[in-house]
Structure formats: structure tokens, C-alpha cells
């Protein structure tokens, strides 16, 4: 006669064989949250450090060497940019040599902005289908480590290797390919990692966990930016290495510490791949899911447009313009001053949303506040205005991140059987926004020769995101 094994405390074992346990509280939940936040931070640190600082500087170096050659190679871009502002204001005139260099400056500005937008957009486009496909495959995966772990570990390690490859790209074409494949691998890990939340967290804690997830996301991006700004002067392009190491280590740590239940007993129907691909249309039949997806897409576009060229704006938009070294030091400072308000807004709104059972007011309010923040640098192109926008925008994004993921989970058509597929499709909205935003921004800079219209575009798109949430009916 056999006796049933006791259920470990603070765990609710899965009712469906091969799926995940639910954390009810206590040490298992705390361990999961710790390594989940670290894994999210490892992913977003790569985007915050490499994507916002190291990659733009890498592209800038390539383009400078292309446009400023021979006797022009020693030009001081900060002085040249300030001279351009003085000429535009009618307080200075240019010599023939300066006119020549100002022409090179215009070509250089358009080239670096255009190439950064292409590198960013191609990477985002390449990842658009990765999260839903990885989610769909992980929904059906049998392994002794669970359904999600092979993708989290494999994606983190492969992504780290590809980031090291980006470091050695000497041209834009090679960089585009390696950065795109690196993002594909990272998203292969991120999609299933996100799906562990509805897998293992009860509905009553979703917004709180979403807020903590937002802390990992924003904290990782902040640490990445601070680290990149601090080490680039010493390591140069070798700064790619610490981010690759952090990505691999935190991904493996999550799989080892937050061990999932084996999925070897998982029962899945025979694969009909044409049917599975068509199944991606299933969640889009839900009007609520569609509206939340559109809101996420447009908010991502607004955020991407306003942040696409942060480093370049400090060198070319604000007055007086900063040098490359000054801009590299200021970018992490902008992130640091954002963090306290962002963290507070995440924790307060996440718990508040769970307590009152409402999501829409927080998402709508956050979108409006984010739009309002961008009016400041539009009307006042100076460094203090960038700090004001960053702080107020950080409060808005903190509130948005804390509740938006919970809102998406709330409107999932099939939370039990297809959460990986549907959350991946939801994540595709963010990826698409991240692809469209830089392309739009690059085109605007190329057409207008400046950055001011980026703020106008970002404000309008954020307000569209606000309107898109209003028709959602299932969630208050």
C-alpha cells in the first residue's frame, strides 16, 4: 500500500500532469521572485547598456570614420554643433572650411541616426514572431526541467555568445545580422520566462508580481546604462563582454533555482503545424485582447520614438550641446534620477490595482502622463528639460509596466492551455512597436534635419494608446 506524498508547504501542485505548480507564498515564492527579477534584469541590462549606449557609440565611431577623413578627422563635433546653433540663431557666420565641415556634419547626423534606426528595427522585426512561437513550442515541450526551462537557458546562453559577436562587427551590415540574431536568442528566453508568471502565480497576486517584474525590467535597464556609461571609457567595445556574461548567468540561475515540475507527463495533441500557426489568430478574435494589443503596440512606438536617439540628442538637440564623453556620462545619470519614482509608482500602483481589482484607470492615466512629459523638452530644448521629462516619464512608465502585463493576462482567452502562445503574441506588439518606432524616428530626423518633431510624434502616439484602452470591457 502506498501513501500519497505530502504537498510541500506554500505550493499548490498542478492539477494537469506536466504543468507547473502554483506558488501560494513563503520561501518558494520569494526564491522564484528573486531569480525571476534577476533574469529579467539580465535581459534588460543588455538592452539598457548595449542598446542605448554601447551600440549607438559603436555606430557613431563607424560613421565618424566614414565621413570625417584626412584633415577633417580631428574636428571637434561639440564645437561644430554649437557653431551650427549660433549660425541658425544669426549670431555667427561660417568660414568656407566650416561650411564644408557643417555639410559633413549634416550627412554624419543623418547617417548615424538612420543606421541606428535600421540596426534597431531589423533586430526588433526579427524578434516579432519569436516570443509567440517560443511560447507555442514551450506550451507543448516535454522535459524533466519543465516546459519553459530549455528555452530560457538555451536562449540566454546563445544570446550571450551572439552579443560577443556584435563586439567584433566592423561594418553596419555585419552588425545588423549579429544584433538581430542576438535579439532573437534573447527573446527565445524572454517569452517563456514571462509565461512562468501565469504558470505559477495565482490571479490575486498578478499585478503585484507584474510590478516586481517591472522593477527587474527597469532596474536591469538602469544598471545596464550605468555600467555601460562607467566602463565604456575603460573597456571600449570590450564592454559587450560583461553584459553577455550577466545574460547567461542570470538565465541559468533562474532555471536552476526556480526548478519547475517535469513536463514529461504532459499530454499534447498530435502536432498539426498549419493548425497551430492558424491558432495565433484565436486570441485576436477577442475584442478585449485586440484593444490591449493595440494599446501596447502604440505605447511601445511612442516610447521607442522618444528614446531612439537619447545619446545623440544630448550631442545635437539640446543647447549647449554636450561632447560624446559628457553625453555618455549623462545618460546613466538620467536613468538614475528616474529610478526612485519609477519603483515607487510600480509598487504602489501594482498593489493598489490588485486591491481594488481595477486596471484600466492606471494604464490610461500612465499613458496621458507619459504624453505630457514629452511636451517639456519639446518647448525647452535644454539639459534640465531632459531631466524633467525623464523623471515624469519614469513615473508614468512605472505605473504602466506595473499594470499593463496584468491587464494582458486578465484578457487572455485561454490562460490554462495557451498562455505561452497568447502572451507571446502580446509581446509581439511590444516588439513591433520597438521596430516601427526607430524607423519612424530615423525618417523624421532625415527629413527634418533635427530631433524636435520626434517629441511631437511621440506625444500623439501616446494619446492614441490612451484611447485604445477605453473600449476594453472584460476588465475595469
From TrEMBL:
Origin superkingdom: Bacteria
Domain Major facilitator superfamily (MFS) profile: 246-476
Alphabetical list of Pfam families matching this protein: MFS_1
InterPro entries (alphabetical): MFS, MFS_dom, MFS_trans_sf, Sugar_transporter_CS
Primary location recorded for the protein, binned into one broad class: membrane
Membrane topology: Multi-pass membrane protein
Membrane-crossing residue ranges in chain numbering: 33-59, 116-137, 149-166, 172-189, 209-234, 240-258, 291-318, 330-350, 362-380, 386-403, 423-441, 453-472
Entry keyword set: Membrane, Transmembrane, Transmembrane helix
SUPFAM superfamilies: MFS general substrate transporter
Annotated localization: Cell membrane
Entry-linked PANTHER family: MAJOR FACILITATOR SUPERFAMILY (MFS) PROFILE DOMAIN-CONTAINING PROTEIN, PTHR23528
Protein name: MFS transporter
